[in-house]
Amino acid sequence: MLVKTPGFTAISILAVALGIGASTTMFSSINALLLRPMPLMQDQDRLVAVSQFFQKNADQNAGTAFPDYLEWKKNVTTLDGIAAIQEATFIISGGDKPERYLGGQISADAFAFMGVQPILGRLFRPEEDQLNAAPVALIGYDIWQNHFGGDRAAVGQTIPINGKQVTIVGVMPKGWRFPEVCDLWMPLQMDEKDHPRGMFFLDCIGKVKKGVSIEQARAELDAITARIAVQYPETNTGIGVHVTPFREEMVRNFKTLTLLVMGAVLFVHLIACANVANLLLARGATRAKEIGIRLALGASRLQIVRQLLAESIVLGLVGSALGLLLAVWGVDLMVSALPNEVPFWIHFDFDWRVFSFALGIGAVSSLLFGLLPALQASHPRLVDALKEGGRTGSGGAKGQRVRNSLVIAEVALALVLLIGAGLMMRSFMNLQKTDIGVDPSSTLTFRVGLPEAQFPDKEAPRAFSSSSFRSWPISRAWNRPVPRRPCRLRETSAPRPSCLKASRNRNSFRTPARCAR
Amino acid sequence: MATETINEQAARTPGANGSNSLIHLDGVTKVFLTDEVETHALSGIHLDIRTGEYVSIAGPSGCGKSTLLSILGLLDTPSGGSYSLKGTEVANLSFPDRARIRNREIGFIFQSFNLIGDLTVFENVELPLTYRGMGASDRKGFVLEALERVGMGHRAKHLPSQLSGGQQQRVAVARALAGKPAILLADEPTGNLDSRNGDAVMALLKELHAGGATICMVTHDTRFAEHADRTIHLFDGRVVEDRMAA
Q1: SS3 labels along A282-328
Q2: Distance CA A483, CA A61 (A)
Q3: Which listed residue, of A160, A295, A470, B121, carries a Cα 20 to 30 Å from A377's Cα?
Q4: Best to test chain B binding among A293, A297, A305 (most B CBs inside 10 Å)
Q5: Cis peptide leading into residue B181 (ω within 30°)
Q6: Cβ contact (<8 Å) for A293 and B116?
């Protein structure tokens, strides 16, 4: 029957496909952020993010002080391991031109307890965490391919990184860029002298022991943190510890927004379903005679409903297939619209969850838009329907009421969406008006790496900035540390002060600069 | 014509008390309520139809013929009275039960053929058998047999739109016959046909009756009504004459 009404079929499928396409696109985000297992890591449900916080600002992580991390590492019994990482800029020189990579200084045992092994070479050894240990590095797959041409002999080579000769000890698997978009890792190699208590800058990750709950680990770390606060009240009074599932911490800033957008998209899909239901109701009215004939010949209402629902399910499934195709395009569009490089563990690829979602929402939608019209159509006034030129129209007052209800539902859904969109727009405009202390329209940010070997003086960054930028058309430059805020996506050159991550690596600094007018 | 004879007519109706009574109506009424105005379409119909009879129901337009046929065909329910089909009271059955009985016991022939335009001749004839839950191979046998009986076996793959009116009505007859129902109900079966095709359909019905089919036909055309063995005249919702053919 659907083939014989191509116009109706095409419009219905298109409406369903648009709704399912948008929903599936958003679901692929939810899948990537919340559902899909992170690549390569073992026992991910036992991984936790650990961070200190100021009790007066308890909803924000402050980072972790290096000495406090050492105390945790020494005393904690509920964790299989706890590691610290500090993202840093690494410049590989020695070639035609220096190459700059984002990397991390990370505890030597971190990758081991996460269950990630190198594809070549070895992981760090515990002693390589010591300050005076020989400098070694693990490189990411992309560096191995691009810088070394995939040569297996890269392992064991010594290359200049940040002006030091560093030995490459291993190559990490393809796609591994922990914690977000790092390509190179070196051992932590810190001391308490340069990184004293009260300087909260490390990101920590732990792995809860099998059979131990996150609450138990949190309680233990709470107790250790409290003891530290008693011992070092000058620096640690009012300092607490957050222990959260690693994934939850990574998506903290995006989860609510993503779910909100998903909700809005589902509303749009519901409107599409209501439209298709209206089309089906209208079509059911034109089929009153046919349905009357079928009923007269002995079809039960169940058989009629089943037949009409089967047609709706075909519409829903074809709509799902087309919606999936639209979602492929939608995901590409969404990814291309993202301003930043996304963390390595976020993959928008379609997997069985996305396919199941598209199929499921297609089936549920079929019932949503098909059931009411099918029930309505299965109750024609038989005698009237069978008469020559008999009533084949609206299905009477009841049918009219159903159609009116659908229109009211559509308007209500659209109104909710409109109000939501208006509120979001207003919040966005308010945010735009927020005084952030600088005029963002004329502010640039950039990162400069000053290798320690060339700039051993701790004052080097300040001296560099004051001397180097003098000749630039800049009205003012700052290299003062910017307050640390959680920022899970890599920042770009666009000024986003709320998301700036201050680098306390003395070998590199970030600087906002005001353009001269 | 006097109505005093209704009970007497019912009493003297052939087979009224006989063992082969197929349909028995007792005081059936039908009242339509439109804008709080009651219209009495049928007022106390008493009627018996025996197996193998060929009955025509005649009368002027608006006398209640089609309403009576709708009730006989379980397409509508009476407002009062009782209706038994093959000895079973069916006046107040649920919709699914009525659908089941329609499917198994009643074959419909409509004035406007009521074939489904998107289905082939074969599929149209097959439809009631499909709803009966019959297997595909059995259905095929029944359908081809019915089509052969009406001389339409060679048009099985055609769509109704590719047939003439007379041919479409033949297909409708085949559909009514296919499930081997207890009774064929024909509502003005020649109403949409020219006289030649009308005669042909009447001849077909006669032939089916000769083969043992029970037929109840509504017509306003006295010429066609006389094809039946028995003619019942309705007027203002009442049976005013129940006459056997000479």
Answers
A1: HHHHHCHHHHHHHHHCCCCHHHHHHHHHHHHHHHHHHHHHHHHHHHH
A2: 12
A3: B121
A4: A297
A5: no
A6: yes
- Rounded CA-CA distance B76/B78 in Å is 7
Number of Cβ atoms within 10 Å of the Cβ of A425:
10
Going A361 to A363 to A368 to A370, the CA torsion angle's sign is: positive
Q: Sketch out chain B's domains with CATH numbers.
A: 5-244 (3.40.50.300)
Residue A88, strand partner residues: A103
- Measured between CA atoms, the residue of chain B closest to residue A298 is B103
Structure tokens of B56? Answer: 């025509």
Crossing angle between the packed helical segments A255-286 and A6-30, to the nearest 10 degrees: 170
B136 phi and psi angles, rounded to 5 deg: -60, -40
3-state SS assignment for residue A214: helix
Secondary-structure breakdown of chain A: helix, strand, coil percentages, each rounded to the nearest 5: 50, 15, 35
Q: Where are the domains of chain A?
A: 6-38+253-431, 44-209, 440-515
Nearest to A362 by CA among A10, A13, A20, A25: A20
Residue B31 burial (CB < 10 Å; 0-12/13-18/19+)? middle
- Smallest Cβ distance to B127: which of A297, A301, A386? A297
Which residues on B lie below 8 Å from A386 (Cβ)? 75, 110, 114
The per-residue pLDDT of chain B, averaged, comes to 87
Cβ distance A298 to B114 less than 8 Å, yes or no, reads no
Listed by number, the residues of chain A in 280-309 with a beta carbon closer than 8 Å to a beta carbon of chain B are 289-290, 293-303
Amino acid identity, position A478: W
Residue among B67, B110, B87, B96 at smallest CA distance from B182 = B87
CA distances A5 to A517, B84, B105, B245, Å, are 65, 43, 34, 50
Instruction: Give this complex's ipTM.
Output: 0.88
Interface probe, candidates B30, B69, B75, chain A, greatest A C-beta count within 10 A: B75
Query: For the residues of A244-285, what is the DSSP string, one character each?
Result: EEHHHHHTTTTHHHHHHHHHHHHHHHHHHHHHHHHHHHHHHH
The reply to whether residue B75 touches residue A382, judged by beta carbons under 8 angstroms, is: yes
Window 30-69 of B: residues touching A by CB (8 A cutoff) are: 66
CA-based nearest residue to B172, from B133, B211, B116: B116
Confidence of residue A317 (pLDDT cuts 50, 70, 90): very high
Select from B240, B237, B230 the least CA-distant residue to B49: B230
Sign of dihedral through CA atoms B68, B74, B75, B80? positive
For the record, the structure tokens of A84 come out as: 């610290």
pLDDT digit string, tens, across residues A9-62: 898 999 999 999 999 999 999 999 889 998 888 899 999 999 999 988 888 888
| Residue in A1, A298, A389 closest to B103 by CB | A298
What's the pLDDT tens digit per position in B154-207?
999 999 999 999 999 999 999 998 989 999 999 999 888 888 888 888 998 999
User: What residue in A sits closest to B66 (Cα-Cα)?
Assistant: A383
Please, what sign has the CA dihedral across residues A252, A253, A256, A257? negative
